[in-house]
Design a protein that fits this description.
This protein is mainly α. It has two domains: about 1-120, no CATH class; about 125-264, no CATH class. Helix content is about 40%, strand content about 5%. It has eight helices and five strands; from the N terminus they run αααβαβαββαβαα. The strands form two sheets. It has a three-stranded parallel sheet with strand order 1-2-3, covered by helices on one side. A two-stranded parallel sheet has the order 4-5. The chain is globular.
Length: about 260
């Protein structure tokens, strides 16, 4: 939706989708009352100028998070509606080849449909039952607490993996290793544990010539910006150290696909 130049275009494209979620609040159609007319009046909801800037920077990839933040496992929606969403994605960015599913809700049927529209890779989940795809109803409190604890203490491993072990059918599965949670004032006393957890995972990947997939949402840095950027800087310094010591490289998802194509 960030590609849309104004509210008129946004509403026209959404009108073509008609996603039938049982929980209607999931549809962006029901959340647009306060959206402005264009990027000048509402820079929070439109982003064409930012996309244009990113396109001028070398070694960047603009993937997709679907057009409408589509929830692939929620009740009511069906695959024809997901296909309509993909058509909007392709019409706005025909070079998109990497997909991150909202809330990591994936299944085989939707992966096959994505392949039909030129998607070659997606971000899969960590190999642990607490990270398995879930819906709004199956995301239990126990799972949420365990995922939170795992961000600070090693409960499920570092989730690093080699290029040779990446699943390729029907899409290349560039699995997540760690979600970079935003800074929390309530958990300030254990912040060092969170940083150490990520550094240890990166170090394991570098030593083993494996991948470590770190991700987060831009809005996660919207609060406590200074603390979040400071943590990110510490992570980047560590990556730079690993680059010098082990030739560890920073890559985006399309880079991984290119490496796999060379090695195949």
């Amino acid at each position: 939706m960030l590609y849309c130049k104004n509210k008129k275009e946004l509403l026209e494209r959404l009108e073509q989708l008609n996603i039938t979620y049982v929980n209607e609040s999931f549809s962006p159609k029901n959340n647009l009352a306060n959206v402005g007319e264009n990027e000048t009046h509402d820079p929070y909801h439109f982003g064409t100028s930012l996309i244009d800037i990113i396109k001028t920077i070398p070694n960047q990839e603009i993937g997709t998070h679907t057009f409408s933040h589509y929830y692939c496992l929620e009740e009511g929606q069906h695959i024809e509606q997901f296909e309509a969403d993909l058509k909007e994605v392709v019409s706005l960015n025909e070079n998109t080849s990497s997909l991150v599913f909202p809330r990591n809700q994936t299944n085989m049927e939707y992966l096959n449909m994505s392949k039909k529209y030129g998607i070659t890779a997606f971000r899969g989940n960590e190999d642990s039952w607490i990270y398995a795809p879930y819906t709004s109803k199956t995301n239990s409190k126990t799972k949420r607490l365990l995922r939170l604890a795992d961000a600070y203490v090693n409960l499920t491993g570092h989730h690093t993996y080699s290029v040779a072990n990446i699943q390729t059918d029907p899409l290349i599965n560039i699995k997540s290793s760690r979600f970079l949670r935003p800074f929390s004032k309530r958990l300030k006393v254990v912040e060092e544990l969170r940083l150490r957890r990520i550094k240890n995972g990166l170090t394991k990947a570098a030593k083993s010539n494996e991948l470590y997939h770190l991700w987060w949402h831009p809005h996660n840095f919207g609060k406590n910006i200074e603390e979040n950027l400071q943590l990110l800087e510490e992570i980047l310094k560590h990556v730079d150290l690993l680059r010098e010591k082990y030739n560890f490289q920073s890559m985006h998802m399309r880079d991984i696909v290119d490496v796999m194509n060379i090695n195949s």
